[in-house]
DNA sequence: ACCTGAACACCGTTCAAGT
DNA sequence: ACCTGAACACCGTTCAAGT
């Protein structure tokens, strides 16, 4: 009982909103959407639920804040390969979000929920801003900048959301090509009358590379923007 | 007690998976995501939870099936203005999904959740098929059909998801222009250094029309497809 | 001002028992 | 084969009480 002076490591270094958010993100990353509970959170933070409610209004706010934090971090990353063209910058922003959703798969569903709850809340302006600056640099006339930027943002959110799953479906046992194979086979067994197209592209889907496909979509939209708003060289 | 022959209207007409799905969709439409509980469902169907579990594996399957039903119905609608061009058909398909999400706002988040759980489950092939046929008709070379179709699908899911909120945020008291006004004002008060673009487009966002904006995005992607894969006239 | 922790209402799911 | 309904484990949230 003499060596009690040290106590057992650090315990409380005061509970802050930041520490709570940090723990929430860790919990979400480790255990998925269902893993974030107030019980798990109190255990990890060594407190009671009341303490958390002192810093955070409710679970919804907690999720929103966690989402915002992660998105902000993803957009803050300066692309290593400093793309010099606006197109390159847009690709970099898109890939940043793509990777963030890949690292934090819960982001996909959470972004959708949040955007559909408060469409222009905190997250949307962040993404809009990152892309919009480049759209402007592309020479898109002022009156069309919002439309072009929104289109890119919506594509990114839709595509990244679905692609996030690829990293998640593949549990410990399943590997990627095995999964794609199975899906491809399933598509080929669809009703020929109802699903001729899907059957026909089953092989393309099997061979596809998530990130390359994602960027090809970005490039398609960029090509559309350039076609509709040709740069006044 | 003599007039008991009639009984009190219909009571049980046997519980089927279809009746359960129907009730689930009604409940979701009426009370939102949080409103679908097994208690509410048993009350509406006048049974116990066990009866529902006999027809449905669990709540997740119930939600997936409800989503699939609604999406299938939305895609089955033949556009009244029978668009003759592939572009017109694609716009019609897109608008069908847009409207479905508008009518069933819970669809947005549910689609995202479902797609991020099983990316190529039941819903994705349906959408892929509807759009893909038209992409093919557009003359896109075979090797690029999957990419072009996916891009359209992802944009639609992303955009419709966010736009769904507009119909939902507006409760009884709030009207649309009031809401856009408030958002627009909020954007103009963002930090000028961090959000120059968002501040600049605040007025465009305020004046924008959801459906027109949505279709403008579709057209942008269609323009991109045409630019990258010019029709071999 | 910040934290504790028992208590409450509610949820998804199970399962022995009925028909 | 299909349904009943009590029971279980778990969840978000509250709040009187402490410091």
Automatic annotation (TrEMBL), chains A, B:
One of this protein's Pfam families, by short name? TetR_N
Which keywords accompany this UniProt record?
Answer: DNA-binding, Repressor, Transcription, Transcription regulation
In the UniProt record, the signal sequence range is: none
- Start and end of every HTH tetR-type domain? 14-74
Which residues form the DNA-binding region? 37-56
Full protein name: TetR/AcrR family transcriptional regulator
In its UniProt entry, the species of origin is given as: Actinoallomurus vinaceus
